[in-house]
Design goal:
385 residues; alpha+beta; Beta-Lactamase; Alpha-Beta Plaits; Arc Repressor Mutant, subunit A; 5-stranded antiparallel beta sheet; 5-stranded mixed beta sheet; 48% helix; elongated
Length: 385
């Protein structure tokens, strides 16, 4: 196991793979086997009860320069970590059968770790593609090295977690999309995962079905509430960076204008996408023209709720009155009050559109001026485009 990393950033994943191998080995090895770290602590074992204990005889193995070390009752094989620290795989017994078992176990762990390392390198490559950190001319060559088709249509589903320390989401998402040849689950940062998946052009409900599958499973099985943003299909691997930026824009725009929606699609952002791309100076000018100074602030919460319901019901007064449990005359009074304060009669289509647009612009400015946005991947920006 030459070159096994023993660094904090990689040790967690390394240990997970070693523990997995030892769990499988316990099914066919009829004697105790395990892996001991450079501190002499048993990090993985076929007998789970021993994990975390100090190995009583590993000190003898540590003192020997040999690859294979035989003590009174155990056989060890030494491995070298990248930082120079030793790791030891052992088996209970010193007979030839034990030695053969141990050699098989070491080779199995080596193979599993090489595969895990290849998966990690592939995921890093894909994240760099999404973040446009790969040279366009290198993408095809590296994709071929990792057996990733470059011409398959793909799209990005961006999964944002409310709780950054929820470690249950990644394995759940990987379990939902186990085909590692066409579905790639990537951790962009502590709050954001990406599903980069092949797009089924023949299935008109592909986006809704995939997003629904993710949402239903993660919100029911994980500790964290999640929001999903979806980019447009990309015709090539290189173009998935655009789908990623679109998904991120959908996530950001959704947090401003559609905070009650758990799945936001770039192609369904409507006015929100238009407003998000306007310069703040133009937005301020527009608001000054629509609302007299202090007019919007003069609207109380009850009036704002009435306006929201009136818009939700497509300016239908009867349905709005029914949902608010108020008399029709009460609704008329409140709309007259809005007209008196703002100068806009929401019963008229043009005025209603103007009020709706201005209120969205106001919400956008509040968000932009008070909250910086962080793109998944660690870059700070207000606009990913």
């Amino acid at each position: 196991m030459d070159g096994i990393p023993y660094r904090m950033e990689g040790w967690v994943h390394l240990m997970e793979e070693i523990v997995k191998c030892l769990r499988e080995a316990s099914r066919w090895i009829d004697r105790t086997a395990g892996v001991v770290g450079p501190d002499g602590i048993l990090v993985a074992c076929t007998d789970e009860r021993l994990e975390g204990d100090e190995d009583p005889s590993v000190r003898l193995a540590m003192a020997s320069p040999e690859r294979v070390i035989v003590t009174t009752d155990r056989t060890y094989i030494r491995a070298q970590a990248l930082d120079g620290s030793p790791l030891f795989t052992f088996i209970q017994g010193t007979d030839p059968v034990s030695r053969n078992y141990l050699e098989l176990l070491v080779r199995w762990i080596e193979s599993a770790l090489r595969e895990r390392n290849t998966d990690a390198e592939r995921d890093t490559f894909l994240k760099n593609v999404l973040l446009e950190n790969e040279l366009p001319g290198d993408i095809h060559l590296k994709a071929r090295e990792y057996s990733i088709p470059t011409s398959a249509p793909r799209m990005v589903f961006l999964v944002h977690l409310d709780q950054s320390e929820d470690t249950s989401v990644m394995p759940i998402l990987q379990g939902l999309f186990p085909d590692r040849s066409q579905d790639y689950v990537l951790a962009m940062d502590e709050n954001t995962l990406v599903l980069l998946t092949e797009f089924d052009r023949d299935n008109r409900d592909f986006v809704a079905e995939t997003a629904g599958l993710i949402l239903d499973n993660l919100n029911s099985e994980s500790m964290s509430r999640v929001h999903i943003a979806v980019g447009l299909p990309a015709d090539s691997l290189k173009d998935t960076a655009n789908s990623y930026k679109e998904a991120f824009m959908a996530l950001t725009v959704g947090s401003i204008f559609y905070s009650d929606t758990y799945v936001v699609r770039y192609d369904q952002l409507g006015l929100g996408r238009l407003i998000y791309q306007l310069p703040p100076t133009l937005c301020h000018m527009f608001l000054d023209e629509v609302f007299p100074k202090g007019a919007y602030e003069a609207l109380d919460s009850e009036t704002l709720l009435t306006i929201a319901k009136f818009f939700e019901n497509n300016l239908n007064g009867s349905e709005t009155s029914r949902q608010l449990f108020v008399h029709r005359n009460t609704l008329v009074y409140r709309l007259d009050k809005v007209q008196k304060i703002t100068g806009l009669d929401l019963r008229k289509f043009d005025d209603a559109v103007l009020f709706k647009l201005a209120s969205m612009v106001r919400k956008y400015l509040e968000k932009q001026e008070n909250t910086p946005f962080k793109t998944p991947g660690g870059k700070w920006t207000r606009h990913p485009h």
